Amino acid sequence: MENLSQLTTEMRMEDIELDTLSSLEIVKYMNEEDKKVAFAVEKELPKIAKAVDLITEKLNNGGRLFYIGAGTSGRLGILDASECPPTFGTDSSLVQGIIAGGPQAIMQAVENAEDSVELGREDIEKRNISQGDVVVGLAASGRTPYVIGALQEAKARAAATITISCNANDKISKIADVAINILVGPEVLAGSTRLKAGTAQKMALNMLSTGAMIRLGKVYGNLMVAVQATNEKLRERVKRIIMETTNVSYDTATKLSEQANGDATVAIIMAKTGLDAEAARNLLANSNGSIRKAIN
Q1: Domain extents for the chain?
Q2: What does the pLDDT average to over 160-172?
Q3: Which helix (H) or strand (E) holds 160?
Q4: Contact 79, 199 (CB under 8 A)
Q5: Could you report the per-residue pLDDT of 142-155, keeping only the tens digit for each?
Q6: Taken in order 69, 71, 72, 76, is the CA torsion positive or negative?
Q7: Would the pTM of this model clear 0.85, i.e. be above it?
Q8: Distance of CA 197 to the CA centre of its chain
Q9: 14 tagged catalytic
Q10: Annotated catalytic residue, options 10, 33, 57, 83
Q11: Which of 7, 40, 165, 250 makes a 20 to 30 Å CA pair with 50?
Q12: Which CATH entry fits the domain spanning 6-215: 3.30.565.10, 3.40.50.10490, 3.30.365.10, 3.30.530.20?
């Protein structure tokens, strides 16, 4: 039986009686620890940037991005994946989150799912992951059997592998093309890796997906030009984006948005080139979805 007490993420930070503190004292204590997370992430920026480059390369060549984890780590991967279609206008199959125990485990823990190496392998096999894809293994401890099995299977299929953990002496790094180790130290609530470790993983995931999408041309300047106008708020955002990038009036932006069926990328190209919607859409397609390349 492995001695988990040696893992940083399982250690007790100090002998403090949390249950005797006031609410303000508790949140101040947590806030002081949370301040350390960004500095821990900062130390891993070169590796995170390398991972962004790897993801960009794979997606640019028709591959897919998979996040895989158990418990909190798995839920964070699913959260990041689910945000990509509305934010960047991607197909839901491009970035996918996989959690030990399946969809049921998103809301409720599935007993022993994370302990199965074979289940991790099966979940990779089910999705026909191959050489063109990239798999990001998420495990705060760095040694979750489910994640190890998934990474081993991904590696056997020649997929690119990236790992994110919060322990120095982790196991998953040994299976990674790029290993990201964000050392946030013990948790305020001993062993509760949904706290600092979870925050660190979320910050890294934000960088991986956002960085890759920027590199793929899904962003123009610092605007979410590929956002899907699925409700009134987002329809108005599309108009504002058109106005900010082309200096047209609100009425003109509204007309351009309508002609482009709510696609800000197409509307911006129309405004900057004088093309109609169909020609702008073809130009965008020939530029791999990058507005800047299309306009240039």
Answers
A1: 6-215, 232-295
A2: 94
A3: strand 160-165
A4: no
A5: 999 999 999 999 99
A6: positive
A7: yes
A8: 15
A9: no
A10: 83
A11: 7
A12: 3.40.50.10490
Q: Tell me the DSSP string of 50-110.
A: HHHHHHHHHHHTT--EEEEESHHHHHHHHHHHHHHHHHH---TTTEEEEETT-THHHHSPP
φ/ψ of 2, rounded to 5, equals -70, 140
Tokens 């839920």 sit on residue: 75
Residue 162 is classified by DSSP as E
Strand partners, 136: 67, 162
Question: At a CB cut-off of 8 Å and minimum separation 6, what does 206 contact?
Answer: 80
Three-class SS of residue 209?
Answer: helix
CA torsion angle 67 262 217 162 (round to 10): 0
Q: Where are the beta strands (DSSP E) in 206-258?
A: none
**Is CATH 1.10.8.1080 correct for 232-295?**
yes
Please indicate whether residue 236 is annotated as part of the active site.
no
Between the two ends of the chain, the Cα-to-Cα distance in Å is 60
Summarize pLDDT for 49-81 with one digit per residue, the tens. Answer: 999 999 999 999 999 999 999 999 999 999 999
Helix (H) or strand (E) holding 140: none
Residue 201 CA from chain centroid, whole number: 9
Structure tokens at 32: 């002081």
Q: Which two tokens stand for residue 206?
A: 């934000």
Give the Cα separation of 186 and 165 in Å (integer). Answer: 13
Residue 1 has pLDDT above 80, yes or no: no
Alpha-carbon distance of 133 to 77, in angstroms, equals 16
Write down how long the chain is.
296
Q: State how far the Cα of 31 lies from the Cα of 26, in Å rounded to an integer.
A: 9
